[in-house]
Amino acid sequence: MAEHTRSSITIEAKPADVMAVIADFGRYPEWTGEVKEAEVLSTGADGRAEQVRLLLDAGAIKDEHTLAYTWNGEHEVSWSLVKSRMLRALDGSYLLAPVADGAHTEVTYQLTVDVKMPMLGTIKRKAEKVIIDRALDGLKKRVESV
What we know:
Layout: E1 5-11, H1 15-23, H2 28-31, E2 35-43, E3 49-58, E4 61-72, E5 76-84, E6 87-99, E7 104-115, H3 121-145
Antiparallel strand pairs: 1-7, 2-3, 3-4, 4-5, 5-6, 6-7
Helix pairs in contact: 1-3
């Protein structure tokens, strides 16, 4: 089983408000930093994205990839890699848990990345941690500013 990296943050908003920002892929370039373009390629019967194309520019790493999303109720979304030029795997999830009587949300982000080029496990996990921390910080700022 592949190792993954996980981190959590508490956001001062209800889980539904947090999930609304997570599900709004068109606005990712406004708050994620590395995502320069996001295009929903297909949606499910519930109107939520099933496949999304993302164009990333994280300095040394520039990539375009497509992710498949699975929505599990109102508090969890996971994704897996469909195709990419640089990645072999990109599996992740957001899990939302209401806290403070539902007025706040603990967001747990889990991520596993496997690149096509050889990379030491410790370096890969450090990169995963940076990606997660930036994403959680950006999500918190975005949700709390809306």
